Amino acid sequence: MSAPTMEERKACWGARDEFWQCLERHGEAAPDCEPLRRSFEARCPQQWVKYFDKRRDFLKYKKKLETEGYHPPEATGKS
């Protein structure tokens, strides 16, 4: 498999950004975003889709930690 061209990369990133913006506006499970998800998957290599999905999860987790702080689970009394 050859590397994507500059145009293909830009199309992929644009589709990703549109999809992520839709999720921000409508929520994570919004059916309105399904066509954008399909476009994202069609324009990006599968490995990139997996990477971007993990990246989004990490960024959401990081934002949550920054706003809410870290709260370790309470000990269950077992040692």
Report on this model:
The chain is mostly helical and 79 residues long. It contains three helices and no strands. α1 (6-26) packs antiparallel against α2. The chain is elongated.
Task: Give the arrangement of secondary structure elements.
Elements: H1 6-26, H2 34-43, H3 46-68
- How many DSSP-defined strands? 0
Distance between the termini: 51 Å
What's the gyration radius in Å? 17 Å
One letter per element, helices H and strands E, the order comes to: HHH
Strand percent estimate: under 5%
Largest sheet: none
Give the % helix: 55-70%
Q: Give the overall shape.
A: elongated
Q: Count of DSSP helices? A: 3
Low-pLDDT ranges:
none
List keywords for this structure.
elongated; mainly alpha; 68% helix; 0% strand; 79 residues
Compact description:
The chain is built from three helices and no strands. It is an all-alpha fold.
